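Lecture notes, continued. The same structure-token format from the folding unit now serves as the input rather than the output. Read the line below as a description of shape only.
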């Protein structure tokens, strides 16, 4: 590239191992997304905790299908987690900076464990919600520390692929949860939902034990003044003896970050305008693709489109599998075709599918939401297009929504900026989870058109404002902004030290 440094280093088994273990942090997030939608479509669970929704479901099928799940407590159950995650990701920022990335992962695992146990044994709605809040605290810590950990551990040539390990484990978590829901829903006596919710203990234990054996990142050791250990660690991670160039750059970046007393205030400086913009816009747009709605409420959505409980849990498994497969495509392509190509291709694909799904649902349900009988081929068409939509998301906005923000921040603002990314993500996940069922009730099939409109906006945004970041060492990112037609006016040459 243009005068960029190429640090020596190969993909050592050691790095692969640490990155795989750390990426498991995504499992807890994914498992939760997959479980909550499936559990809320299990009749025994609804009867016990949300009797009003259960009654609406049992009434005759002539009721408005768009509105059958519109209940404030049900929505609170789903979305309380995201508010908790939002609060804890702000706390996690300080822990991650002062005590290292590992400790944040450990906290995340322990909190998540506690929440899972409370949910599995829940007797009342308030227990469910307390459990969800603890799960949320855990997720805030994990989502704050894991993407940073992966970006700092990975050799820059493979950073995209290793970082997407986080998104891959989110999608695997979703899929496992959906498969379990399908089988647990069949348990006689209707207590399968306890296994679904309590099962979250397993991914939580993996990340808790994982964080006990993982090393901390050299970047984070240097940040805490452990220079010698950091250099030894860097040699081991990169698998080469001569790491002095990368090491010196890390030390320089760290000195610069030490001289900054308020990383939050610092983010507002003019030279960080491009970083701040991306930290806010990327997660904002990621949620407005409407993906979490599809994943969260897949069973509920398919139920509404007229599938039986069994069939709707099954079609959720299908979308979940597509999600995992497409994320693998992105691991293969992200360092090859680049970030921008994937963003734009995925956007186009999602747009077409959203338009088709809206047309299908609109044609069949009309505006009053009474479908009558659904022919089988029709249901298959809807599920197919939802799958193509999920695939488009899973190799573009899904993984890149976490990867790009975590790789563009210089060390001195990295931890604070990553918190902003997680917070914005959680705020909009929360808002959309809160209003989705109500919006479905009022906007009907038009809801898909709303999301389609945002997909157009975000694709234009990427095309104009997002520079390509593949294959650039993480502490060299300043170059990218300096040579960008728009951002260069904010970032002057001497500003990055090196």
């Amino acid at each position: 590239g243009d005068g960029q440094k190429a640090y020596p280093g190969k993909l050592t088994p050691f790095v692969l191992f640490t990155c795989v273990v750390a990426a498991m942090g995504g499992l807890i997030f994914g498992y939760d997304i997959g479980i909550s939608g499936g559990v809320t479509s299990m009749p025994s669970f609804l009867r016990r905790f949300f009797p009003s929704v259960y009654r609406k479901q049992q009434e005759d099928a002539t009721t408005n299908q768009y509105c059958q799940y519109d209940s404030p407590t049900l929505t609170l159950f789903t979305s309380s987690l995201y508010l908790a995650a939002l609060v804890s990701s702000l706390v996690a920022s300080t822990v991650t900076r002062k005590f290292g990335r590992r400790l944040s992962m450990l906290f995340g695992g322990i909190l998540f464990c506690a929440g899972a146990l409370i949910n599995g044994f829940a007797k009342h709605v308030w227990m469910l919600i307390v459990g969800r809040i603890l799960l949320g605290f855990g997720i805030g810590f994990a989502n704050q520390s894991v993407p940073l950990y992966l970006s700092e551990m990975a050799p820059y040539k493979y950073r995209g692929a290793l970082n997407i390990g986080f998104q891959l484990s989110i999608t695997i978590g979703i899929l496992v949860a959906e498969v379990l829901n399908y089988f647990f829903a069949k348990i006689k006596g209707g207590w399968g939902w306890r296994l679904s919710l309590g099962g979250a203990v397993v991914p939580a234990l993996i990340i808790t034990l994982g964080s006990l054996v993982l090393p901390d990142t050299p970047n984070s050791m240097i940040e805490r003044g452990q220079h010698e250990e950091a250099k030894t660690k860097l040699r081991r991670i990169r698998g080469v003896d001569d790491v002095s160039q990368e090491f010196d750059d890390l030390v320089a970046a760290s000195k610069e970050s030490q001289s900054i007393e308020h990383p939050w205030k610092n983010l507002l400086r003019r030279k960080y305008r491009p970083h701040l913009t991306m930290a806010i816009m990327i997660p904002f747009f990621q949620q407005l693709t409407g993906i979490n709605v599809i994943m969260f409420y897949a069973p509920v959505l398919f139920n509404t489109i007229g599938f039986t409980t069994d069939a709707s849990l099954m079609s959720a498994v299908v979308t979940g599998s597509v999600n995992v497969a497409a994320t693998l495509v992105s691991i293969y392509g992200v360092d090859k075709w680049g970030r921008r190509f994937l963003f734009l291709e995925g956007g186009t694909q999602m747009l077409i599918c959203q338009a088709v799904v809206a047309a299908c649902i609109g044609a069949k349900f009309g505006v009053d939401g009474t479908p009558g009988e659904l022919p089988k081929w029709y249901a298959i068409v809807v599920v197919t297009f939802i799958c193509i939509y999920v695939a488009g998301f899973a190799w573009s906005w899904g993984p890149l929504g976490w990867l790009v923000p975590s790789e563009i921040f210089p060390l001195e603002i990295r931890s604070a900026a990553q918190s902003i990314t997680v917070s914005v993500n959680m705020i909009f996940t929360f808002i959309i989870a809160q209003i989705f069922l109500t919006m479905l009730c009022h906007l009907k099939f038009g809801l898909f058109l709303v999301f389609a409109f945002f997909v157009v906006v975000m694709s234009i945004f990427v095309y104009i404002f997002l520079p390509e970041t593949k294959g650039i060492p993480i502490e060299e990112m300043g170059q990218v902004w300096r040579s960008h037609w728009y951002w260069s006016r904010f970032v002057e040459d001497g500003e990055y030290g090196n």
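Point for the exam: The two ends are 16 Å apart (CA to CA).
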